[in-house]
Amino acid sequence: MQKIIDQSIEIASNQFKSFGFKDEQILPLTQSGRKDLTAELLNLQTLLSSNDIDRDAVDLSIHAIKGLVSTMGNKDLAREISAIHSEEDSTLNIDGIKALLGV
What we know:
Helices cover 81% and strands 0% of the residues.
């Protein structure tokens, strides 16, 4: 989970730098992204550790995480989440998300 957060923050920082943002402008943006991504990953972790998994809530959380990492520029991870998220077999979906996100 931490690897995903760190990787996404690094990508976002590099993108902001390439757009000409200064470090003092980048820091609050990446802090906000870190906070939001951490919170949603922890939410997903809680949802997935339940004995009775609420698939609708997991679906919303996965969608939020995909949006966050995509917005942060981590397009490869967003594509991987999309690929797993669209699996027909819901068991593969849950197992794949757990494996990919380390939750």
